[in-house]
Design brief:
single chain, about 60 residues, mainly alpha, 2 helices, AGP16/20/22/41, Arabinogalactan peptide 22
């Protein structure tokens, strides 16, 4: 059981590191003056975080 939790933790770390790499690559494409907050992207990020939190809650509840 502890090994499964370790794998879940590693998967989570790699998942978030991949998301960080994508966001940093996207941020380097635009000049600093042209960076505008995209409300649709913020909503999507919040939705992903909530789904990920729900996944963890259901995983640890069982």
């Amino acid at each position: 059981m502890a090994a499964v939790k370790a794998y879940v933790l590693l998967f989570t770390a790699f998942f978030f590191s991949g998301l960080m790499q994508l966001s940093m690559a996207a941020a380097q494409d635009k000049p600093a003056a042209a960076r505008v907050v995209d409300p649709k992207a913020i909503d999507q990020a919040i939705a992903y975080l909530l789904m990920f939190a729900a996944l963890f809650v259901t995983y640890f509840a069982h």
